Amino acid sequence: MPRVHDRGGWPEAGPINKAEHDYSLWEKRTDALLVLLTSPQKNVMRVDELRRAIESIEPEKYEKLSYYERWITAIEALMIEKGILTREEIDRRVEELSGRVD
Amino acid sequence: MPKFKPGDRVRIRVGSPPGHFRTPTYIQGKIGTIWTLYGAFRNPESLAYGGDGLPAQFLYCVCFDQTQVWEKYAGSSQDKLLIDIYEHWLEPV
Fold first, then answer.
1. In what order do the strands lie in the sheet containing B80-86?
2. Interface pTM (ipTM) of the complex?
3. What structural domains does chain B harbor?
4. Rg (Cα) of chain A, in Å, rounded?
5. What pLDDT score does A12 carry?
6. Which residues of B touch A3 (CB under 8 A)?
7. Interface A:B, Cβ pairs < 8 A
8. Domains in chain A, start-ordered, CATH in brackets?
9. What distance in Å separates the CA atoms of residue A2 and residue A80, rounded to the nearest whole number?
10. Strand, helix or coil at A52?
């Protein structure tokens, strides 16, 4: 049985939604965050590490997350793995910002 | 030196190593033809864990008949699948 991200040929996965849609601000910010973290100037992480961290998301959770939710989940995991941020620091910041509306 | 050249027939290795790899399950065990050699690139299986990705691996574009890839393929028998595969996932046929 292929792992959860290895989707090719899964008949039960259903048809691909080909509808165009706009990206929300947080999705654009997530993309920008990855560009910054993988840039040669910063060199904090590699896109291969992002892929590996996405593939490491627990299968049940993976299925529930959207595309950029998987990205930000993986980026968080890598920042913690590399000792750049702690889970507590991330959670505290999310708490601080949770009342703010963009 | 690359092991394969355009036109060579190759089989994709079958495997599911515990880490990160970029050879999807659906193409494993299938026989195709080398289309292009892109060059040598650092190995993503090492880069994915913060490694240096060395030694670099040759990366090829491999061509398959869709009817060979999908058992019940309903499209044209002329349809091809082109997929990028690193050399250590290829074996000669």
1. B80-86, B57-65, B31-41, B9-12, B90-92
2. 0.90
3. 9-92 (2.30.30.50)
4. 15
5. 74
6. 16
7. 35
8. 23-97 (1.10.472.20)
9. 27
10. helix
Which residues of chain B lie closer than 8 angstroms to A49, CB-CB? 47-50
Residue B92 has pLDDT above 70, yes or no: yes
Q: What is the pLDDT of residues A57-95, one digit of tens each?
A: 999 999 999 999 999 999 999 999 999 999 999 999 999
**A92-101, B19-28, B52-61: segment of lowest average pLDDT:** A92-101
Which of A4, A7, A37, A48 to mutate to probe the B interface, most B CBs <10 Å?
A48
The DSSP 8-state label assigned to residue B64 in this structure reads E
User: B24–A8: do the CB atoms touch at under 8 Å?
Assistant: yes
Q: In 3D, which of B41, B43, B33 has the Cα closest to residue B4?
A: B33
Q: Give the best residue of A3, A5, A10, A46 to mutate against chain B (max B CB count within 10 A).
A: A46
A52/B19 Cβ within 8 A: yes
